[in-house]
Amino acid sequence: MDSLKRLLVFSLLLAVVVIGALYTLKPDISRFKGLMVEPVCRKKLDSSMFKEVKLYQLKYPIGQLQVPQPLAMEPLRPDVLTLTPWLAPIVWEGTFNIEVINNMYQPLNITVAACIFAVGKYIRLLQQVLESAEKHFMVGYRVNYYIFTDQPDKCPQLALGSGRSIILLPFPSFNRWQEISLRRMEFIRKAIEDRIHHEAHYIFNIDSDTVFENHFGAEALGELVGSLHPWFYDFSRDRFTNERRPASRAYVPNTEGDFYYIGALYGGSVEAVYKLTKTIEVELNTDKQNDIEAAWQEESHLNRYFLQFKPTKVLSPEYVWDKLRGHPPERIRVVRLATIIKNNKELRPN
Ligand SMILES: CC(=O)N[C@H]1[C@@H](OP(=O)(O)OP(=O)(O)OC[C@H]2O[C@@H](n3ccc(=O)[nH]c3=O)[C@H](O)[C@@H]2O)O[C@H](CO)[C@H](O)[C@@H]1O
Ligand SMILES: [Mn+2]
């Protein structure tokens, strides 16, 4: 009798574990009731509705850490620019102490949203970017991967770290890659309205043709974050690939421009990115009505936006290196995220 009871309890426990495991591995596709282009509920968001990290919440734990003293007369990276003319830090290896940063941010239990679009054949790239993100992206923090896709059933099933989850969101199949790329602003805006505003504190847009190779953590968090494009960080402004036709809302004259930022990685507080996506969506629509498409789609508009609304933090090319450029120069000491070499002809719909 006793052994029967034990067997019964054991089988029950086993069933709970198996069902639990199946449940956690299975991405949430409940929101896929047909491909809805319109958000489920459209909210007008005001400042009070966002999750945010206030400066006074960041508290350094006195007496607990042994960290080197910062020396005002000894720059840590004299070989690169570490501050913009508007006094935003440019993040390079050697400029920050991750222990200090983690000790200030981790007690706040923040959630970071990563928006990744995987439409058409790009769905194949998801496994690699997600697996590598689990090893390097915001480790020790809560992370929500919002995967925008037209094929929810093909999303890889990964065992994620604790506090990390995948949320699938519908995105239509377009037959021009340019359309996919530039509609991202609208879809991020809608997802923020729909749910991200109450689910995350910070948000990043990350291209799916990328792979994380090294630490990419809380040092990258900021109110409004742009990343230097790995092809243009040492170019003069007149050679940036900004939109040069005044007829486009993305127009930047060649006598202006601070840096050339990449469209594959930007972020910030959810509220700041909401404002960014909302603004750029309007500019994109205006261009569309005027029958003009900026040279590099939403990246061109992003550059115009960042010229006007300067990022509060700038990520160095460590944060998006392009493998097509081969090994980075010495001053780029570490590659944290790299864009993969892909066959555009084979992957893109056009
Ligand atoms: C090195 C270079 O020249 N990079 C430019 C190129 O980026 P990329 O060559 O990196 O563009 P891309 O092909 O990665 O497209 C951008 C993103 O859109 C998504 N996607 C795109 C096509 C598709 O069929 N399915 C899909 O899911 C996916 O998340 C992808 O990462 O074009 C972009 C256009 O905005 C930017 O201007 C980039 O600076
Ligand atoms: Mn890309």
Strand order across the largest sheet: 1-9-7-8-5-2-3-4
Gyration radius, in Å: 22 Å
Which series of helices and strands comes N to C?
HEHEHEEHEEEEHHEEEH
Enumerate the distinct ligands.
uridine-diphosphate-N-acetylgalactosamine, manganese (II) ion
| Count of beta strands | 11
Determine the mean pLDDT.
92
Computed structural class:
alpha/beta
Measured between the Cα atoms of the first and last residue, the distance is: 69 Å
Number of helices: 7
Query: Outline, from the CA principal axes?
Result: globular
Largest sheet: 8 strands, mixed
In brief:
With 350 residues, the protein is an alpha/beta fold. It contains 7 helices and 11 strands. The protein has helices spanning 2-25, 98-105, 126-136, 177-194, 270-289, 297-308, 344-347, and strands spanning 90-91, 111-118, 142-149, 164-170, 202-206, 210-212, 224-227, 265-269, 313-315, 321-322, 337-339.
Report on this structure:
- The chain starts with a helix and ends with a helix.
- It has helices at residues 2-25, 98-105, 126-136, 177-194, 270-289, 297-308, 344-347; strands at residues 90-91, 111-118, 142-149, 164-170, 202-206, 210-212, 224-227, 265-269, 313-315, 321-322, 337-339.
- The chain is globular and about 85 Å long.
- It is of the alpha/beta class and 350 residues long.
- It contains 7 helices and 11 strands.
- Helix 4 (177-194) packs across helix 5 (270-289) and helix 5 crosses helix 6 (297-308).
- Strand 2, helix 3 and strand 3 form a beta-alpha-beta unit.
- The strands form 2 sheets. An 8-stranded mixed beta sheet has the order 1-9-7-8-5-2-3-4, with helices on one face. A 3-stranded mixed beta sheet has the order 6-11-10.
- Helix content is 28%, strand content 14%.
- The structure holds uridine-diphosphate-N-acetylgalactosamine and manganese (II) ion (MN).
- Residues 117-120, 122, 177, 180-181, 207-209, 262-264, 296-299, 322, 339, 348-349 line the site of uridine-diphosphate-N-acetylgalactosamine (UD2).
- Residues 207, 209, 264, 339 line the site of manganese (II) ion.
- An alpha-L-fucosyl-(1->2)-beta-D-galactosyl derivative binds at residues 229, 241, 299, 322.
- The active site is at 299 (nucleophile).
- It is found in: Membrane.
